[in-house]
Amino acid sequence: MSGEVVLHIPLHIRRGFSRRGKVTFYTRLWAELERRGARLRIENYEERHYQRIDPDDGNLHLVNNGALDLPNALNVAIAYLDGFWQVDARGILCDSSIGQEEFVARKQDGAASWAFFQRLRQDYAGARKSRYRQPRKIAPVAPGVIAVFLQGDSHLTDRARRCTTPQMIRSVAQGAGGRPIVVKPHPLKVAPADLLAVHDLAASGIDIQITEANVHDILARASVSVSISSACCFEGFLHKTPAILYGKSDFHHFAESLTDLDDFAGAYERALTRKRGYSRYVYWFLQRHCIEASGADFYPKISARMVALGFDAERLGLSKAQ
Questions:
Q1: Side-chain half-sphere of 84: how many Cα atoms within 13 Å?
Q2: How confident is the model at residue 160 (pLDDT cuts 50, 70, 90)?
Q3: Contact 183, 211 (CB under 8 A)
Q4: Integer angstrom CA distances of residue 75 from 30, 93, 199, 283
Q5: How many CA atoms lie within 13 A of 74 on its CB side?
Q6: Per-domain residue ranges for the chain?
Q7: Taking a C-beta distance cutoff of 8 angstroms, is the pair 93, 229 a contact?
Q8: DSSP state of 261
Q9: How deeply is 101 buried, as exposed, middle or buried, from its count of CB atoms within 10 A (0-12, 13-18, 19+)?
Q10: Under CATH, which number does the domain 105-282 receive?
């Protein structure tokens, strides 16, 4: 008997399957596989079935926000911009295989990169659209600010971090050279210790303040973005804003990765002077290595990743429907 395709997904995604007209990554994946005759099953992510996957069960498992290295599992996650996804046998985000690849700007198609980049600038930066809901009201942001994006406490952030968030905030303040700093808390995950660090620094006379402004209003005015490994820093590339990271990331090729907490001033200078090609990098990362949920190449890219694990059409009992 052919193997099953098992989706390990959380409740809020499972609920999306019942919403008519709402096409998401998983609903499209389900539809594409179903019409090719796949045997499909959904497992409750919250019950951690993926932690008990038998590597020899003959089934292909797709695990939301997974961190598995198994011969029959693909890890799945949003790739920083809502609408683009990672489907990766090695891992996601800081653990994805993209981080092991070499980016060579001159090898990217300049015209295709520019057209792709301009589309994303219009769809995300121009529309002031981010993964999480943002204020529609335009907020004033001083030009040249250092923008720090907090990620709160989560297992994804903890896998990436090289220091605590308060340590990062104090490192930025120490090396900012008097430049103003704005700190944007994560809309869903707020750690009191992180906010306390900001208030303590402000009370000591540092020009630092918390803001709830739309991330795109901040990024459009910032000289650099700073985080452990936040998607906001990747969004900053659409504004041609350089990034400084205090954690591991699979977009480290295009950011300053800080390992010495006393070197923020040096990282800031390097970020501003480094030669860049934003359109080529964004194209290389998202178009070459990720999957756009609404893209015409959605299923061919999914299929290629399944085949790379040994799950071809014959093993899964799939037809060659187009």
A1: 22
A2: very high
A3: yes
A4: 16, 10, 38, 22
A5: 23
A6: 4-79+291-316, 105-282
A7: yes
A8: T
A9: middle
A10: 3.40.50.2000
Predicted confidence (pLDDT) per residue in 192-226, tens digit: 999 999 999 999 999 999 999 999 999 999 999 99
Sign of CA dihedral 300, 302, 305, 307: negative
- pLDDT digit string, tens, across residues 70-123: 999 999 999 999 999 999 999 999 999 999 999 999 999 999 999 999 999 999
pTM of the model: 0.94
Residue 2 token pair: 């052919």
- 26 to each of 8, 18, 88, how far by Cα in Å? 11, 12, 15
Name the residue type at position 189: K
Is residue 114 a contact partner of residue 279, using CB atoms and an 8 Å limit?
A: yes
Confirm if 78 and 96 have CB atoms less than 8 A apart. no
Question: Which residue is associated with the tokens 């800081």?
Answer: 94
